[in-house]
Design brief:
This protein is α+β, with helices and mostly antiparallel strands. The protein has a single domain, classed as Nuclear Transport Factor 2, Chain: A (Roll), CATH 3.10.450.50. Strand 4 and strand 5 form a beta hairpin. The longest helix is centred in the middle third of the chain and has 14 residues.
Length: 156
């Protein structure tokens, strides 16, 4: 599979609403996998288990979570990521919708429908496994939508 296809499979894991089994994850996620997401206030560690925990964390809070990719750019340069050794990266601009039905960051379920946008840079190993990702998304907008605070005021 090419890495654009691999990136689509990665999104499918988010949209599946089921915890991927260890065998499937081992085929898709590198043991050295790490996610750099400054908006996720939780450290999930490294490897396929870390990916699985991230998916479960958000899926519990938003069980109907749906990711739609609006734009994809593929870069197969030899030096895509000198730090992690990746020779390929896929950049996705996406939007996520979901209904807040589970607790997240201490915020009780509100049953509010949410939508946020973001960008992810996925780095793949030479054998096509997800090695590293950088995620930027509008967490403040999500917190506002679920009533964590009003603009201009702090939550009590």
């Amino acid at each position: 599979m090419d890495n654009k296809t691999n990136a689509t499979v990665y999104i499918d894991l988010w949209n599946n609403h089921e915890t991927p089994d260890a065998k499937t994850l081992a085929k898709l996620i590198d043991p050295k996998y790490v996610c750099h997401d400054p908006n996720t206030m939780k450290d999930f560690g490294k490897g396929p288990e870390a990916f699985q925990q991230r998916v479960e964390f958000y899926s519990k809070a938003f069980p109907d979570l749906k990711v739609v990719v609006d734009e994809v750019l593929v870069d197969d340069k030899a030096d895509a990521c000198p730090d992690c050794g990746s020779t390929s990266r896929v950049i996705q601009r996406w939007k996520v919708t979901g209904t807040h039905k589970g607790e997240i960051y201490g915020i009780k379920p509100t049953n509010k429908k949410t939508h946020v946008q973001g960008v992810t840079i996925l780095h793949f190993s030479n054998d096509g496994k997800l090695l590293e990702e950088y995620v930027e998304w509008d967490a403040m907008n999500l917190m506002k939508q679920i009533g964590a605070f009003e603009m201009g005021t702090a939550a009590a």
